[in-house]
## 1
Amino acid sequence: MEDKFMSLVKGALLHDIGKVVQRANDNPTVKKHSEWGYEWLKDNLKDDLAAMAAIAHHYTKDDDYALNNNFGLIWYQADNLASKERKGREKLQEGEWHSEITLASPFSRVNNPDNPEESPTLAYLPLFLEKIDRTTATESPCSKQDYKRLFDAFETDFNSHEIQKPPSLNFLLMLFEKHFSHVPSITMKIYDGLKKEEIKEKHPDISLFDHLKLTAAIAGCMYRYYSETYPEKWNKNELLRDEILNISDAEKPYLLIGGDISGVQKFIYTITSKGALKSLKGRSFYLELFTEHIVSKLITALSLTRCNLIFLGGGHFYILSHNTPKAQEAIKEIKKGIDEYLFKEFSGRLQLHMEAEPFHQKLFKNSSEVWGKLAEILQKAKKTKWKGKLQDILKPQMPHKECLTQYCEVCFREDIPLKPLERGVNRVYDAICDSCKCQYELGEELKRISEKEHPVLYRFDLEKSEKDPETLTIKIESSKYLLQGGWDKEIHQDASAVYRINDFTAKHYSHPNSIYMPIGFYQHKDLEELSDASPVFGLNRIAVLRMDVDNLGKVFSTAIPEEHKTFSRMASISRELNKFFKQYLNTIVEGKNVEEPTDLANRDVKSKGRMLTIVYSGGDDLFLIGHWLDVTEVAFDISNYFRKFTGNSFITISGGIALNHEKYPVYQYAREAEEAEALAKKNKNTPEDKTKNSISIFGNKPFKWVEAEKIVERVRLFTKFLKPAERHLAVDEKRLPSTFFYRLLSLSRQFNEKGVLILPKAAYLISRAKFGENGAEDSLKIKEVIMTQNVNQWKINETATMWTLMLTKKGGGEDAGE
């Protein structure tokens, strides 16, 4: 890529570095942040052209470079468009420069989706992310010493000796995300003459990282747009001041590209139970990889950078691009090539829907129009799936000559060659197609590298690479991808790109095309097959958990007030959601670094981890599978930390759990968990109740999270009357009759299903127990929850009792309570 283009984009990405330098300085006000930034860039970046961005993005009448240079105009205008959330502030009376201001969570701008007039309280983000429950209700000032510590850490990483100089753009992107995600992009604290609620509306909530990344994306688009639209003037270095600063209302220099892969559910879940865990993991990761492959191709074809990648996750992506005939043609060509590949490789089961919506620069301030239009055309495209391939789809296909008597044991295809899959002396499959074999092996690799501290994904573009790796790889079009547990010097040198998975270690970014890649892929070290998770504790069962964010469409369409729907804020909220489901989820699910993981049977989750795996996570949803107790408990941890992550009680998450035998078909698990999740989202306490915020557990019983938490507390109460045994809890018959919880479950069902008067029977049940030996407080509590006519208490009792009985099972095949 051209040196001048990269200098322009780097300059845009680094233009406000002076804000951090200034805040970390002992005498911050002796110079403007632009001067602090320019001096630092001159000394450290070794790119004089890029360093000019620090000064040029705030040009004045005396600034000849900014006024009389196209790069200066682009930096100025890109910064202006990326900071539209600040417009209107200059008309207010401001307080003095306030360097200690704390960044508010971008979710603080999301109102109640069911009542958009109701706004949340501000939630604040600490400058340093030291715990995963990151938001706080009170603002803790960011001191000069805090900024010194932050900038020292940044400079240490920046000067890592393994990194090539000048540093690559992707390396800088990773560093900025690592260090500046919680740094406010501005330090104005507006308070003079304003009411408390008005101050809240003006509090900064866009991070320096998000502002700089978007500025760089816009600058890259402008370079391409003006160099392609006005080639003669551009090549002669003629000034394009009016063209850049005063574009007409009819001109639409920008494109928002959206991509969505359809057919994902069937692709992942329509598989046999044999070898299901590896196939599930492999297929899910393949889709993640495939989406990244498309994004990488697009960015390369458009001659842009990863700054222009606005969002990538859950089979979706959005890219900010320039709107020129060349760009439009590149998008069409890539879509055509991807469609041909998918149709040939998967017989039409997967399809890429990709559209691009042109827009005027004014929509950077209120971007809901462009996002809404793009969503509409994507939805329309999904309704005409494979419109140009109908003849091929309807054409009768004879089985492959090798498939006259068999089909692929994983995907059931019979139109392609099959072969057996063996591991040592064991035959895993008698007949499997190459695609399913590759995805199964990918699942094996994911299990292997999940135990490594710094896994790596290498990409080889076969048209450019000198070597075609012979080790296990997955091929997509003319590229191959290789998973490794760590760095490999020989492979590293020949790779076209190196993806560092969940890795913010600066010295690991020595490859000129190193890319940070967050992935939710936790898997317990002892979990090889689903059968390994079944006998962990209590009842032998596997469970699936599906969860997603409630009302996400409303969150972006109506819950964010019009004045806050800037492009930067919409992008920031999307990125933050993706961060939770890709980056944070690994920690929450494992349980080891969670302060107080839900651990009802005291199994020491903090040291042993959870016997489950993430099948997929990203965007706004997740799918987990593993031991029923681990899956159920972690659902509560996810809900708890999601609330702490957003700091906004109006942004909620709902889920459903399906539970069955280890040999139960995976697609049935997926379907039943989906039905349970849908049931949770329809859960209403009253006809007027519009909130979702629920979980369905054990027999599709939906509860609001606040009620579900009471179930957990009730189980904790019940287990105080049990004793530990090998891999289960046992009734202590010195204190409780062996049938106590079975009788309690029966009474709960009689009350909940038939409204039978049960207090006399409940009193008799209590009379046979020796609660006193457990302490007066616990004895009183259990009597209170049983001797009641309260409907909600008995609903809680039923599910809590079933849960408790499942904990007391010694494995077995029968269901608790039956």
## 2
Amino acid sequence: MRSIRWSLCLAAALIVSGAAFVSESAFAESRPRDVMNAAELELAIQKLRVLGSVLYIAAHPDDENTAFITYLESDRLARVGYLSMTRGSGGQNLIGPEVGEALGVIRTQELLAARAIDGAEQYFTRAVDFGFSKSADETMTFWGREAVLADVVWTIRTFRPDVILTRFPLDARGGHGHHQASALLAKEAFAAAADPKRFPEQLRNTAPWRAKRILWNAFRPDTGKRDPALPPLLTVDLGAYNALLGKSYTELSAASRSMHKSQGFGAAERRGPVPNFLELLDGDPAAKDLFDGVTTGWSRIPGGAAVDAILAEAASTFDPNEPSRIVPTLIRARAAMRALGADPWVEVKRRELDDVIRSCAGLWLEAMATRPYALAGGSVPITLSALRRSETPVTLASVSIPGATIVRDAADSTRTLSNRALARNVSLDGAAAATLPANAVLSQPHWLRKRPGPGAYQVRAAGATDPVEKEWPGEAENRPALTARFDVEIGGERIPYDVPVLYRWTDRVAGERYRPLEVVPPVTLRLDRGVYLFAAPAPREVRVVLESPGPAVSGSVRLHLPAGWQSTPAETTLAVAGADAPATARFWVRPGERAASGPLTASMTVAGVRYDRGRTVIDYPHIPVTTLFPPAEAHLVRADVRTAGARVAYVMGSGDEVPAALEEMGYRVTFLTDDEIESGALAGFDAAVVGIRAYNTRPRLRALQPRFFDFVRAGGTMVVQYNTVEESLQDKLGPYPFKISRDRVTVEGAPVRFLKADHPLLRAPNRIAAADFDGWVQERGLYFANPWDAAYEPVLSMNDPGEGAMDGSVLYARVGKGAYVYTGISWFRQLPAGVPGAYRLFANLVAGGKE
């Protein structure tokens, strides 16, 4: 097990027509690389002698079998990659309000946090997670089959796996169209990657590759019904115990699995046998082991036996109390590797070896910016440190940063950090000022630099070139904005170590923290609301908050409006002080009599350059701080929305933006804690709205249900949004029994039928029509009620194409003087997206059918 992301920086150099191409799962680390401890070092030294690789393929973050990956990394000592088709932006979020692309960023970082524990590398395709899909055909249509297939082929050709594993079968047993599609694409790519006629444009930078076999990591197969003519299933016990690490692979994998916190996938540490099965999908059958027929040692490389002999010597003489004693042997191994010439496996193992040498020598290297961000073309001061904590002699030959001035000794500015012997446990410190290129791209996640299409991120295709952007589509995250190269000399070998420039600070609770240096625009803009609701043609104020992280700027600010809308003034000049001191531009916006809903964008023009990006910081304790620069946009909603009542109590669940939508409708919203609900705080409110997954995330609410039902009987309205299926919740959420099902309608344009056209929820205070269901996003809803007590009235009926009617999206019941509503409609998506009809219908739910 590795406590840092060191293995993600391995590279495979592919030699094509004499030109070397390096494919990296590169990323800006959240902290400098730690030195490996003795157990990690022993495994890493053993791994230097293993030249076998596995690529695991599935659909989403959290789909991977972390136990299998841990077994492959820590037992078989293979090089392992996980290819996730999507970044998970279509899922739900258990830990906060982020949905859509922001959630995809969180889930990407959670995957990297998992890989930092289990040691594998992380890759993606361009495919967008558009939400639950009920068929592989629908999935392929949305994604664009050939584009995503090309990405899978590219990953296979650059990673060059000996064996490919899929998490899901080729049929619908995976339960999700994305799941089945991931397996179908993997199987097709297995053959296509070996065919030079498929995606020949990739061959400028890579070469065809044929894996030995592709296997399905099968779910509990029924061996009694299996066709005896099929190749035998392979069995692997993932519950095996690793005495060096003191845990089984299922125990170790629980930690990596539990990094998927936004999906609520905390995992228990399993002990004892955990058999897993492998079923052949294509390629050569295996009789006993997934690596049957694969040479997994240095003998697969001509001349590799000499390297293996030296590494065997290092392994046999390794002393966990004095790791530095084997450094001379490792240096000999490095020289022997160099003699083998250019080979992808040699490049991979050389990088692994360099990291082992660094750890055995107790070498700590860091490059720290004095602030967390810099402007394109701007300068940032950087401090550098090199520290040797072993008996191994180490000379710092040089330190360089692209665009930096000469690095000087922090204690003596007349000296550079060149050809300096490192004293034991005495830090050699330097200072530099680095200038970023004028065309440096923003630290926006590279797959979000352009607005995503409906099925795929708009990034350059594999094999294309770009003079500015460095990332390839499959890379997990951005490469560092700045990198310091420390060239050290150990035993006559000159070894380069690339260290990302980070920012370090101390949190009073969390202690020392790190984040990548970010490239930011000179000004960012933020609209004061995400949605502006105009129920009448009267104007309303729109405020734009502007911040400059660097020097003060001044320029013209304006709003860009849909046809028929007007702002006063049309443009205003504003000066924005530096150091993130905010300034506010105010406009009055008026819709035309027939103006339709649409997007609103704010921009500031400075010295002839237009800036129109906002800034969003995602900060959770289990992942690095990440900054997004989305377009400075909001939604203008022109809709006749009437309300009944004035005060709404909101019971937040896992996090959503529905309260802001209620405020836009004119409600006064108050958030209630469990204690406040227990003490009778519901009295005086017209309605209580329970947020998504509230009963999943706030278990105490279950005991407080009588308080809510008393509130309803006294005349209030209670609206409960969806919760996920839990046996302990069934028949407990409402005043009468109903069960939460997995019924859902995934097609956002699926027809909606009124079961009773004159139902109170469809009549008052807004008369709902079919047009109110136009323009919805991603889906209609999920976790519908089914079945339910006869005391409830279903209101709407809908279904995906080819399926039967589902009537449990909205249940209504009169209780005493009030009303209770359960709804599985995805309000948490529709209201922040500014869907006009969603505002009108949700206002009716909150009113409980009152006129």
